[in-house]
Input
Amino acid sequence: MATTTEAVHRYLIIGAGPGGLQLSHFLQRAGADYLTLEREGSPGCFFRRFPRHRKLISLNKVHSTSDDPEVRLRWDWNSLLGDSPELPFCNYSKEYFPDADDMLEYLADFHRAHALNVRFATSVDRIEKASNGFLVHTAEQILRSQCVIVATGWGGPHIPNIAGIELAIGYEDMPTAGETFAGQRVLIIGKGNSAFETAQALLPHTAIVHLASPHPVRLAWVSKHPGDVRGQYGALLDSYWFKTLHGVLECEIKRIWRQGDRFKVHIIYTLAEGEQAVLDYDVVLRCTGFTMNSSIFDPSCQPERVLNGKIPAIGPDWQSLNIDGLYFAGTLMQGRDIKRASSAFIDGFRYNLRTLAQLLLERYEHTPLGHKTFTADPDRLTGAMLDRANWSSALWTQFEYLCDVYVVDETAGTIQHYTDLPEDYAINRFADRSHYYTLTLRWGRHGYRDVFAIQRYPTPERAEESAFIHPVIRRWRYRELVAEQHLLEDLLAQWRDPVRHVQPLRTFLSALLSRNL
Output
């Protein structure tokens, strides 16, 4: 039973995984009054159990063509943004797909190196909305705060509504040794990375592995989203097409029941005109993803949720849509770019959190949002945009989501340059301005029949038909998109060519600036 009430901190961060640690660092560096609460005795407790087969899907590209630490972060999906040069993740593992234990060691060192204000072994029982902020209840005390940022990550498994689903062994509990399933017929419910990770471990040992869900497999190299099924799990797909009895089923599972020492599964195929079947298995495994923990929220501050209740519904500033002052950090920030950018992963949300820290400081500390000002000159603006497109790792990893904003003051003849804002946030923030630009990196055309045989059009006039990631500059008037300029894709992501990149952008900006200045 809590014995004291103490109004101690302006910001309370719940959870000391990578998201909580990253935000703690930015607030601490700004001299903010914050405290981070973590239920376990060390950071990153999620990685003690997951992924179950211990290999991360986040890339650890140790070698690069650049020595610039900012550029190298484009291909370093595990490092947090910090002040210690000894803490790139590549110092902890040289494996392209590192072990989860390496992440645990890295997070512990990040916490120590930055001396973050984390209170471990402190479980949050309840978050309550109060008249001037929040009351956060722990076993020892009640903490009062103006602002709460929830960085708890995934709270538990998402369990689909299937009759008999309790007969399936969950991903969180299943044996990880493939030999456990030797000679068996195994059904895996789900077709995400956890399902394919599990199938990969079982493949040499089982008689049959079937993966089942109503929708077809989403392959990362087709969707361009790192959370979809990755190439290293392709062995099961090979086995499927080479007729080895392993398979991928597009079906709705209606019921699971036990019959003798077997499991019966009634399915309806979704791509076979309603064909139905009852299939026999020795074991059923559930790999259907995770959901947030909503039990810590008092009825006074239950946040709205989306995606079947898995994640919070958030605004462009990562604040709860219905609870003022309640924000979300880490993987819970993905509600604005689901299956698009990388807010679900460290390489994406580390930049979100840098921006969120600035927005929090602006709101609660009255610290103006940082920006640079320069003369509204086409050459200067062209150079500024290309410098960012060629250098920024935030725009690279948070493609089609984070943007740079260039706001034109036509009276003063100047431009204000803001970095790394969500594009939908920028449009809301500058909706009263009649002349501004956003710079993002975007993918090009979609819907290819074969993603490895894409017809390219290597001329600047057809840059909007680029298939690979490339810069896109948009000119806005209030909330209206007025004009758009694509720059031609480049194999090495270097947009400096005078004819292919510089001149087309300068011509575009010159026409728009001269028309208004």
DSSP finds twelve helices and 26 strands in the chain.
